[in-house]
Write a structure and sequence with these properties.
heterodimer, A: 17% strand, globular, B: mainly alpha, 67% helix
Chain lengths: 271, 105
């Protein structure tokens, strides 16, 4: 665990590697980029980052504004997150092309990173991603703006508890605090409103393998058809019965898919 | 996990580890909430103590620092399925640490 100063921002990073092989043993480096909102990288660390560290080297960090990374007042465009990501890799001394796993909005970040910095990216694994295609800001704002309005308009913790699916008071208080700080205390919403889609010619610069995994009940799946046109080499896999929230709980299947995507043998069965 | 299940839940090593783990939890959630939860060995992090992943991560990092390479938490977590993570209890963490320290000699 470390705090790294990259691209002018303090980012909390966790790096995992389990096993006794040397640092030159040629493990794939897999970097995870989580989604927007009230999460950070901790959930992904336990469910995917650490399990994959038996064969890969995994790097997870909290996006600016999230977790223990710096909550900057402004600069929440995809371009800012991409610059953070590249800056972070530079600070960590990771020069080789990395496998990027982008979750939800993190998908938009890693797709853009692969388009802007193709030599830094070995492959893309998109997990129920938001793709930076026309209309994407509206999709994200449809989720964030109602939340911001409720937070600004006065709310009870009971309402937050219910809105989050019946979580405890304590979790609701923490989540509401983080959401207020991010949505009401920074330029994030304005930055998203001002975003443009990634141009088709920029999508065409993505030259690495791309695997997009969607929950078959997720609203993100609607974008999958466009992906095939923009990134011809992209493959799409569906996880049955999963929506945008539950898809991240299919950890065994996701770990196996990531292993396959980055060229690792299937995990040894646990005794 | 056979070594962890054979841990004897008493003695100065066990008590010391238990105190360390409880202190780490207390430091992260605060004294008041800790007392409210009546945290015991059977308490699960996710359900009983209602910890978010971020908080479990903080506790894990404190323990990693405390045991400074003598306990391989990451390898242990790496081997867990989602159900193991959801059902993880204070007692299981204590058992794992004790077993690791005993194995290290």
């Amino acid at each position: 665990m470390a705090t790294v100063h990259a691209n002018g921002v303090e980012l909390r990073v966790n790096r995992y590697r389990v096993g006794n092989d040397g640092l030159d043993s040629g493990r794939p480096v897999v970097v995870f980029v989580h989604g927007l909102g009230i999460v950070d990288h901790s959930g992904l660390a336990f469910t995917l980052g650490m399990p994959l560290a038996t064969d890969a080297e995994t790097i997870l960090y909290a996006l600016r504004g999230h977790g223990h990374s710096e909550v900057v007042a402004s600069g929440y465009r995809i371009a800012d997150h991409v610059a953070d990501l590249v800056g972070l890799l530079d600070e960590l001394g990771v020069a080789e092309p990395v496998h990027l796993v982008g979750c939800s909005y993190g998908g938009a970040v890693v797709v853009t990173a692969a388009a802007r910095h193709p030599s830094r990216v070995a492959s893309l694994f998109l997990l129920d991603p938001v793709l930076p295609v026309p209309g994407w800001p509206e999709r994200v704002l449809a989720l964030l703006e109602p939340a911001a309005e409720r937070l600004a308009g006065g709310y009870t913790i009971e309402q937050v508890m219910a809105a989050l699916g019946g979580v405890s008071r304590r979790k609701a208080v923490a989540a509401a605090g983080r959401a207020e700080r991010l949505l009401l205390g920074t330029s994030l919403l304005d930055d998203v409103r001002g975003e443009a889609p990634l141009a088709e010619r920029d999508f065409a610069r993505i030259d690495c393998p791309v695997l997009a995994v969607y929950g078959d009940r997720s609203e993100m799946l609607a974008q999958a058809g466009g992906l095939a046109t923009l990134v011809p080499q992209a493959r799409v896999r569906l996880i049955e019965g999963a929506d945008h929230l539950s898809v991240f709980g299919h950890t065994r299947e996701l770990a196996a898919l990531i292993r396959e995507a980055v060229g690792l043998a299937p995990a040894a069965s646990r005794g | 996990m056979s070594t962890a299940s054979s841990v004897i839940r008493s003695g100065s090593l066990y008590d010391g580890v238990r105190t360390t783990v409880e202190t780490a939890i207390r430091d992260v959630v605060g004294e008041l909430y800790y007392e409210e939860c009546q945290v015991g060995l059977d308490s699960t992090f996710a359900e009983d103590i209602q910890l978010e992943s971020m908080e479990v991560m903080e506790i894990a990092e404190r323990l990693i620092e405390e045991y400074d390479g003598r306990v391989d938490f990451v390898a242990w977590f790496a081997d867990m399925e989602l159900d193991d993570l959801i059902e993880l209890s204070v007692g299981r963490v204590v058992d794992f640490i004790v077993a690791s320290l005993e194995a290290a000699g």
